[in-house]
Amino acid sequence: MTSTAVSHKPVRWGRIAVHLGCLAALLVMLYPLAWLLATSLKPADEVIASLNLLPSHLEWSNYSTALDGVNDVSIWRLLGNSLLIAGGAVLGNVISCSLAAYAFARLRFRFRGPLFAFMIATIMLPHHAVLIPQYIIFNQLGLVNTYWPLILPKFLATEAFFVFLIVQFMRGLPRELEEAARIDGCGPFRSFFQVVLPLTRPALITTAIFTFIWTWNDFFTQLIYLFDPEKFTLTLALRSFVDASSTSAFGPMFALSVIALLPIVLFFLAFQRFLVEGMASSGVKG
């Protein structure tokens, strides 16, 4: 009778420790979301007074109150305002930043290097440093309390981060494609729209995702430019809940916060594959 030795793989405690550490970090990062979901279902007297994560009973009326809207403005109007601003910002950044990136990455013109360096330097410029001059300009144009101050700058390639992101991606594309298009009679604009732009889809989707998330969550800029409750977004409506009813509206406020998070989560889940591809390609190429 032949006996075979059974070999056992040694337990890799280091890998187990790494996995446990990642799991602990995941729980820490997900706790605020779990707390938000639980608090949105708490009764009004437990939101502040109780430290328990789970509510004593589920208060579904918080969501019904949140769905009624604030300041006589329906939640669908608030949602539409947020989508309008976020959609306009996405469209503006994708168009203007891709055009600016194509000029820096592919075209040859005077002072291209210094202009590109100046554009990169603007990334370090705080947003609050230019907020007052921008407000004065839009106020003189009569555009305050409209959506234009929140959308129009996006069509002027003011987001240097996205320009740099797309430039890095375009520099990795083979120039032979544009040379072949030029031989066929394509000019710079036609080469951009028919050759370069389709190949930069991962970088453009990355730009769209970050622009949508940052614009959707923006509170300070919208607070500066929007006064009329009919023009409020979901972000500004959260503040209105507290101002309107003080502490008694904390439950509906957290319920509205959960509702406001849903579009961001759905948008990210729909395009996360392109996000990873775009970030990886932009970081490696160029």
TrEMBL record:
It is a multi-pass membrane protein. Keywords: Cell membrane, Membrane, Transmembrane, Transmembrane helix, Transport. Belongs to the binding-protein-dependent transport system permease family. The chain crosses the membrane at residues 16-38, 83-104, 116-138, 150-170, 191-216, 249-271. It is found in: Cell membrane. This is Carbohydrate ABC transporter permease. The keyword Cell membrane applies. The keyword Transmembrane helix applies. Residues 79-271 form the ABC transmembrane type-1 domain. InterPro entries: MetI-like (IPR000515), MetI-like_sf (IPR035906). PANTHER family: ABC TRANSPORTER PERMEASE PROTEIN MG189-RELATED-RELATED, ABC TRANSPORTER PERMEASE PROTEIN YESQ-RELATED. Pfam families: BPD_transp_1 (PF00528).
